[in-house]
Design brief:
Order of helices and strands: EEHHHHHHHEHEEHEHEHHEHEEHEH
Number of strands: 11
Shape: globular
CATH superfamily of one domain: Glucose-6-phosphate isomerase like protein, domain 1
CATH architecture of one domain: 3-Layer(aba) Sandwich
Number of helices: 15
Helix content: 40-55%
Radius of gyration: 30 Å
CATH topology of one domain: Rossmann fold
Length: 447
Amino acid sequence: MSARPGGRRIAPRTLALAGAAWLLAAVFLLPYLVMTLTALRPADELRDATYLPRHFAWSNFIDVWRESTLGGNLKVTLLVAGGSTVLAARGLRTDRRIGQVADGPRSRPPPASLPTPSPSLPLARGARRMTSRTPSQTSAEIASQPECWRRAADALPRHTGALPRRGERVAVVGCGTSWFMAQAYAVLRESGGHGVTDAFAASEFPPGRDYDRILAVSRSGTTTEVLDLLGLARTAGIPTTAVTADPATPVMALADAVAVLDFADERSVVQTRFATSVLALLRAHLEAEGARPDGVHPLDRAVRDAGRAVTQPLPAGLRDAEQFTFLGRGWTHGLALEAGLKMREAAGAWTEAYPAMEYRHGPISIAEPGRATWVFGPAPAGLAEDIARTGALLVTGSGSADDDLDPLADLVRAQRLAVEVAEARGCDPDRPRHLTRSVVLAEQQRG
């Protein structure tokens, strides 16, 4: 028998009953533990034969709340419960009055006066916070990019077999944002000595051109031009690879090999984290193959810089500029094109993008006070002085200084600017004008 403090002993029967109770509780609680751990798994770990997730995706609960009707159901419940409580309270007061009439008047002390709520109370401050603007879904996806890039690098061993081999002649295709990421990767791969690489909008792929592989980027996996090109490539016998965020789409059947980055999928129409995660995966692959170009940072540096870019204040006065020009050289020209597109999509802003050395050949003519020029990567010699003479605001920050950002991380700042400008202009960055999440064309609309 066990002894309790104070000398009293616990009977064996009591110990046995307590043990049985604990065992029974564990049996009942085990399914809840399994459900909780499963709910915390990212989508790409659901089939892993492990007890604990490698990454805890706490955002799953937020996603369920946003995508389901739980919020609306809770609101209805509160309305019904609140209304019932009010009606019950009024009925109780009526019963009491009837009782007072029947029993005669009773003396009672006067009710104490209630304090007047003060605007400085925490509740009042909370009420004002409730009326403030809710952060956009696009903003949340932008902020998640450092973790997405890290996971893209971790996923490389699973996707290496699908990615271009050293020496292959590769055409990289996409539409919109995916096309601009294709341009950035094409320069990185070819300048790193991994093989000849061209980038095309999927609708502009040159028929009859000889390639060893077509690499298609499509977040939705349903873009008409991409699917049509993959079908033509299969007929022509050209090996194809697709990178997508959705494994339940037609691209899975049309491409010979597929890399799925479902952890970087987005609910927003405007692409941010999926596109940059694709480029992070491709950069990690080039590094693993010993083909990182000179002057390009390792991906882990880019991930760290992205963490800074998420919170780094934007230059004063930039949000209020009336026009934005984005410049880049080499692989960062694709980033400049993408920054301009983000500003147009999210905010309807007037933006232009050029190779940095082309800026003096005409585009500089629109530079003036109240307008901005943003350079990705090191600025060409003398360009800063040329822009200063126009009075336009020059934005840099991803040059060659030790504390400068990786250009891909600098793109995160441009994405944040797009959201800030959109909100300042009364636009909803989650619902851009005239755009849908994927362009699916009818037969008569195909080129």
